[in-house]
Amino acid sequence: MVHLLVALVACLLMSGSDARVGDGWGVNIHWTHASPQEVNLVAGAFRVVRMDFTWSSIESTCGTYDFSAYDGLLATLSPLGVRQYWIIDYTNPCYSGGSFPTDPAGIAAFTNFISASIAHFAGHDIIWECYNEPNGAHIPAANYSTTFGDALAKATAAYPNETVVGPTVAGMDQAYIAVTLQAGMLKYWSMVSVHPYRNQPPETVLADYAVTAGLIAQYLPPDHAPVPIIAGEWGYTTPPQPGPCDGNCARADLPTQAKYLARAWLINTFHGNPISIWYDFVDDGPRTPDAEYNFGTLFQDLTPKPSYRAAAALQWSVGNGTYGGRLQPTIVPGDGPTATEYDVFVLQFDGVVAGAPAYAAWTNVTTCTAPSGPRTDCGFLHITEDQCLARGCCFDESDTTNTPQCYFGTPPTNVTFSIGGGASK
Q1: Which is nearest to 232 in space by CA: 279, 173, 179?
Q2: Contact, 424 vs 325, CB < 8 A?
Q3: Is residue 387 packed enough to be buried (19+ CB in 10 Å), middle (13-18) or exposed (0-12)?
Q4: Phi, psi (5° rounding) for residue 280?
Q5: What pLDDT, in 10s, does the model give residues 287-330?
Q6: How many other C-beta atoms lie within 10 A of the C-beta of residue 67?
Q7: CB-side exposure of 207: number of CA atoms within 13 Å?
Q8: CA distance 153 to 224
Q9: Taking Cα atoms as reference points, which of 190, 185, 145 lies closest to residue 165?
Q10: Where are the alpha helices (DSSP H) in 88-173?
Q11: 213 CB burial (10 A radius; 0-12, 13-18, 19+)
């Protein structure tokens, strides 16, 4: 059982930074026009929206660009303090036979589209993402680097202050990232975007980030400003029962999805990621076993899931502050498994309440002892965590397809700790 506690604790420390951390917490949407209800729900929990900026729809007439839909999106959300994060994708039937452009004429057309787009929206603090999961689309990293290298060389030279990110790989495809970095793409990117989907809890991403950070350090040009990692898309789906899935489904029940959203945002903040995009805002379809339909923070009828409430609670509590670092806890052992300082996170956020800090504290370990042999099932198919714990049993929130999630074990005990020492980055 993993607990998330966001407690507002007043003390005498004052804020030392002016970057509101919640301004980097966002969500993926799939519209340029929406109902007032949807717009208000976005603004109620998120400060960034990620949306496809689709080449074929903007240049539906070859050689002519129509940005009006995105002008409208910008006009709707910017007054509410919501930043735009637009994905430059995908192909255009006017060029390269509708395939990803690798020929000179196609690259030139793509370059013109990107340059015209950035020019049209320059100065609006938009994050421009270069494609979406090119490794999943079977675009070789060398081809990606050549096409976007040519396009961004022109666009970033004309508009050096615009924010451009890439390569936006599906998963943590370190080999793909390495090829793009070796090709010199860090000259053009303000941030390195990844999609760290997984069936494991969010904290497991730290090991993957360490590998990516090492690659960035290896290929960063001399005297270049630091290039942080961002989670350009990451979520956990909540199908009512197992069903069809493409690859890593990252399934969770509704309460666990809410915990994972909060912990994903917080662990990204701890790592230094300035942007965290949750996938998705609204379920793509009815509540069916299809995993792809159920990533939303809202059901299809716009009813909030627990994950939406978690996002709003986090956004308007510690999200109002600035990140003050991690406090090293002193672990007080209980009767259950021993936790270490690497299993307990206590993050300080300055300037949350009348200039004073607040803390987000959670553990990433179960507080039940798993038996050494096979687990004895204590529940039933699709049992929830609350139902399991009400039986006095142990619950494993991670995806356990072949072992019971609710099982008999040593009775759960709380991991308690006291805060000692100061905050460290």
Answers
A1: 279
A2: yes
A3: middle
A4: -145, 175
A5: 878 888 999 999 999 999 999 999 999 999 999 999 999 998 77
A6: 14
A7: 5
A8: 16
A9: 190
A10: 104-121, 141-158
A11: middle
In this model, does residue 424 exceed pLDDT 50?
yes
The tens digit of pLDDT for each residue in 338-394 reads: 566 677 899 999 999 888 899 999 887 665 655 556 778 888 887 887 788 777 788
Residues 6, 347 contacting (CB under 8 angstroms) = no
Please tell me the distance from the alpha carbon of residue 331 to that of residue 328, in angstroms, as a whole number.
9
- Mean predicted lDDT score pLDDT of the chain: 87
Dihedral angle of Cα 161, 167, 169, 172, to the nearest 10 degrees: -90
What three-state secondary structure class fits 109? Answer: helix
**In whole angstroms, what separates CA 328 from the centre of its chain?**
25
In contact, 349 and 321? CB cutoff 8 Å? yes
Query: pLDDT tens across 110-146, in order?
Result: 999 999 999 999 999 999 999 999 999 999 999 999 9
Q: What is the pLDDT of residue 301?
A: 95
By the 8 A CB rule, do 289 and 241 touch?
yes
